[in-house]
Design a protein that fits this description.
about 80 residues; single chain; 4-stranded mixed beta sheet; globular; Glutaredoxin; alpha+beta
């Protein structure tokens, strides 16, 4: 089984996003991080894919997780 490509959509000063990025600093992984508050194209992409503007959002292939603690749990499983 291969791990799907991971993309993490964040908002620059979002404290819940910081919780996830802090975890990633301690546990580096191959993951693309896009700041939807600083990058309009990333924001549009996330809205089109998920129908939501809620961050953080972890994209794993065709699946999406929006809650920071749930994201961290999934990253622990994949790490």
């Amino acid at each position: 089984m291969t791990t799907p490509k991971l993309t993490l959509y964040i908002g620059g000063s979002c404290r819940f996003c910081a919780r996830v990025t802090d975890y990633l600093q301690q546990n580096p992984m191959d993951i693309v991080i896009k700041d939807v508050w600083a990058d309009n194209a990333a924001q549009k992409e996330m809205l089109e894919l998920t129908g939501s503007s809620q961050v953080p959002c972890l994209r794993m292939g065709d699946a999406y997780i929006h809650e920071s603690l749930d994201i961290i749990e999934k990253l622990k499983e994949l790490h």
